[in-house]
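Reproducibility note. Readers wishing to regenerate the assembly model reported in the main text can use the exact inputs given here. Chain order matters: entities are listed in the order in which they were concatenated for prediction.
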Amino acid sequence: MEKMSFNYNSLRARNARLGKFFGKPIMLIILALMVIVLIASGISLLVMRLAVGWICVGFTAIPLMLIFWTKKELVLVPVNPAAGLNGLLSNDVLAAMPRNPNAKDIAALITKTTSGKFMYVRYGLSPQLLEEIASVLPAEVGPIFQTAMKIQEGTNSEEIHGAILAAAIIVSYPGHEDLLKRMKLDLADVLDGIVWFNYLNGLVKNINVRRHNGGIGRDLSFGYIPTLSRFGQNISIVGRGAMRTHLHLADHREIMAQMTNIFSNQGRQNVALVGPDGSGRATIVNAFSEYLMDADAKLPENLRYRQVFKLDAAAILSAAAERGQTERLVMAIMNEAYVAKNIILWLQNAELFFEDGTGSVDLSNVLLPVLEAGKLRIILTLDQQKFLEIATRKPALANALNRIMVKPANEKETMKVLQDQVPLLEFNHKVSYTIWALKEAYRLSERYVHDLEMPGRALSLLDSAGDYANQYKMVTAESVQQAIEKTAGVKVQQATSSDDRSKLLNMEELIHNRMVDQSEAVKTVADALRRSAAGVRNEKRPIGTFLFMGPTGVGKTELAKAVSEVYFDGEKNIVRVDLNEFVSAEDVSRLIADGAEDSMSLTAQVMKQPFSVVLLDEIEKAHPHVLTTLLQMLDEGILRDVKGREVSFRDTIVIATTNAASIDEFKPEFLNRFDEICKFKPLSPADCLAVLDLIIAGVNKTLAPQKISVELDQKAKELLVERGYDAKMGARPMKRIVQKSVENIVAKSMLAGQIGNGEVISISREMIEKELG
Amino acid sequence: MFLVDLFSWWYFRGWGVFFEDFKKRLVDTVDFFSMKDMILTLFKPYRQIAAGASETILGGALDRLISRMVGFFARVVILIAGCFVLILEVFCGIALVIVWPIVPLLPVAGIILSVMGVVF
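Running the prediction on these inputs yields the following structure tokens for the assembly.
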């Protein structure tokens, strides 16, 4: 194998070092000043008839040539792939590379390069880490360079820059997989980082390249559009800003090609982009508008320099006081656009133009003939649900449209979009985003953001996370977690504190503080939750799914509340659905109703409160269709609401309760969806005594603000159990009997002024007998 | 080595870079003055001001004629301005092509002129 070595004296290396020296702004200023001083002094001397002035004038050439050389060559030494390693090393690497570099030298120079800093900031490949790795590598750097060349080839990089050398050093380390794992990364992430850097570097290099967009006479052949300019926004003009819109999804690029095809051919000149919010419909239109304005793009002549105008429904409505005026105004706009001959109208949220309502108006009678005639180019963007609604109401309208579906992005595509948008977010928030922030934004938004689709949903979360950067102005995975906690009101931080761990370890004890016996059921639930908290669980299912079976009053609901209190820090984190209210097939729609229509539907409540115990009470009474609907929730942790949005139950503990005597009442496929089936045994009189203590403790808790407490002697307790125990009804009658006796005695004593603050009411068997009669 | 590198760049790669920049500038100018479009649409109506405005055939034809004349003049003015700038750029380019190989010789020329005692 060819031995690879760095040639310190190669022309590229020499030029890169000179470029580093002369390329500094101060040096360029000095050189420019030298030119001015030499020429001025030379001319002055010649005017003074001193021939030595020619020397000054002549030597002006040296700084002048240096300026040219630096700006046109030295600061950006071109790559020369034919020269192998020495022809591929990037400018900043060449400039910083010592004569005979060893692994440590390479590690040290990486963070002096732009790409090395990029990997440090976003992937945590710090100078210390790289130098530590380099210190255990052989001093011979040939293998590192060889690896770097392979990575350069594998990532389609134009040159070998600091990021590639960083990856090469890491790959050369034998235990790199474990090392990366500890950093929550893998090699693919690092290689992806190189591709990301190359992409951004390409954008930076091209930012100063002049775009050709038709010039000053471009619109001379096209008409005036005063009304349209008033009620619309020319996104083609907006799109000529600093950053171009890039389409990272193959689907989107294909859609743009379809749009070009439709608009350049004869036929209906409209495109309806139908897809969920956040799927990138507006991005496609923006990219399309920029494409049409690019003089260098290969596109049909009948589309060149066509401008996309976004119509503002609100502005049109507010300008037209009466209904007829709106129609007239829209017709005037359409007429202007048609006569101008270079306009493509964009109806964003097109449903606003096809239905009457607040902020919308039904203009289908005006728009349908225009769409059917196919003379005026129109783009409509709307979501699928709205399209279906319009298609049902106005089939002719739907038939007149060239519908193109815009699908949500997958994880890989979404990450590309996020990487593309990061510079813009960083500019807006004045922060830096790490790769973990991007990954977390995808993961959390997929679970907790329901109003948008990918990539929009991940992007919106990443944008919000910009406000939660740490003290070093870095947006990390924790920043994203904070953002989702604040914006969606969900708690996503894992149980890491010693308090949380101790709670999990002592879960049985904590649960038994509020409920009696049922040790087996409690242990089953506690074990399942501990496994989940330790990460030993399927992330694509709820934390735990339990079926509690047993007669009434034995503590099924109480255990669900106890789990909520212990696991989710509060009894309030419980979503309770009484399935005895869902006894017909039609009730399914109520179960999964949209939150705007029914805030108490199961999906709406879990959407608001994804970290909770979902208590499905009395499932034996639910209609079989309701149970079938719940299967996906139990199996995959997902339930679709009536609007088709996926609601995640993956952070819930699902507890179904039933009083059914036997599991035979349920279908096996339903029972199989539960992690555990916990059978609750009936309470014995001895258990009821313990239950009584808990009830009395509850009474004392209620009385605590008045500094009054109650205590019962043993005989009084026995009497209460004797009167309240019912094997069929469990502990429920106990609550009633305490209410009738103990609480009544306390109330009467307080009203009679027999007890004051800080006193204890001792209740005897006789007092209870007297009270109960 | 430094001067050798500078001079060899100036007479070899430097030429290429110079011509590339020159070509880019010309293309930018052609785009800025929309010269290709101006030629292709030389007789088209100006700003579509005649489109559907008049009710009679004669009136429409007259409107279109006027519109095309206005358009023609507007385009010719832009074309003339563009050509003027292009010619200026070409002249500057030719001047630079002539000056380019002489620049590295200027120090030597300065020394010679100084030794010869040439003054105004």
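We highlight two features of this model. Chain A has a mean pLDDT of 88. Chain A touches chain B through 46 residues (CB under 8 Å).
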